[in-house]
């Protein structure tokens, strides 16, 4: 009898210990969010604002008690906007058992990483990857974004070039990447389909080249009155500088890969007058005002490219997890498509393809050293 009592006592103690251990694990279990993007190299100015946005949102969420009582932690990985690095980053984040990913930043890197996340059942929300293929193809039901696709951006640029600037001899060049070439192809399609203009040159350039004088000469000989460029700011800055040094006044019009203060800094005075599309200006939204002020206070500087899109992406993701009371892929995806989240971009939710309803682009011009939205 005594030995039976001891056995029952020990079993009871073991069960109690297991229960306490389970509660402790639940209490300390965190939601892991991966942040993937260009945090070094020429395109770091696109990726670093996303890190800062996510850090600020999560600091506020954790201070308020977390998501469904669970604290959130970030796992930050740098892909330098290179597809081969993005694949490795995705593998590392999956191994770290992240519950979702904010990123990647560039379309090519995003595309390279998405299959890995899809196979692992991980939700991905990008603030800046605009390639239409990422949502239109239906291949990536785990992918969402808080920015409109390149098809919408290219249509805006084409309409602006033809209807506002009323230019008719167009050169279209791109950097041969998923993002730049995709944008350029759509712009070419819309311009040629308009019947109002002629594409006199369509060509790719090599990213990172020291000299772009060959393409600049082709633009000059083509007699173009506008250049539409698909790609990122390093190449755009070099091309614009070389054009202006040759006295060419040809209008230079580009995409949100160029709508960044780093472009203006690198191109210097030659940036003046350049046009670029970019996310709609929502800085008068009270939540945007607060998010920008928070950045200034914390980091002592103005936020960079896609900061508000990243802030909104982080808020929307955590809002969906809170609504779903889960971090499980299907539950979070359903919540992202069902519930509106209040963000600096306005109230957003996502359509069946993963695009944010209401997100769009505006045209901007460099005026006195800053990008100004053209109404």
What does this structure look like?
- The protein has about 375 residues and is an alpha/beta fold.
- About 50% of the residues lie in helices and about 20% in strands.
- The chain has helices spanning about 1-30, 45-65, 85-95, 105-120, 135, 150-165, 180-195, 215-220, 235-245, 260-265, 285-300, 305-325, 330-340, and strands spanning about 30-35, 70-80, 100-105, 125, 145, 170-175, 200-205, 225-230, 250-255, 275-280, 340-345, 345-350, 360-365, 370-375.
- It is globular, with a radius of gyration of 24 Å.
- The termini are far apart.
- The model is unreliable at about 1-25 (pLDDT under 50).
Unreliable stretches covering 5 or more consecutive residues? 1-27
What's the alpha carbon Rg, rounded to whole Å?
Answer: 24 Å
Give average pLDDT, whole number: 92
How do the strands of the widest beta sheet line up side by side? 7-6-8-9-10-13-14
Q: What is the N-to-C order of secondary-structure elements (H for helix, E for strand)?
A: HEHEHEHEHEHEHEHEHEHEHHHEEEE
Helix content: 40-55%
Global geometry: globular
Give the termini separation.
89 Å
Task: Report the strand count.
Answer: 14
Sheet-strand content, in percent, reads 15-25%
Fold-level CATH name of the largest domain: Rossmann fold
The level-1 CATH class of the largest domain:
Alpha Beta
Structural class: alpha/beta
Assigned CATH architecture of the largest domain = 3-Layer(aba) Sandwich
Summarize the biggest pleated sheet. 7 strands, mixed
In CATH, what is the homologous superfamily of the largest domain? Response regulator
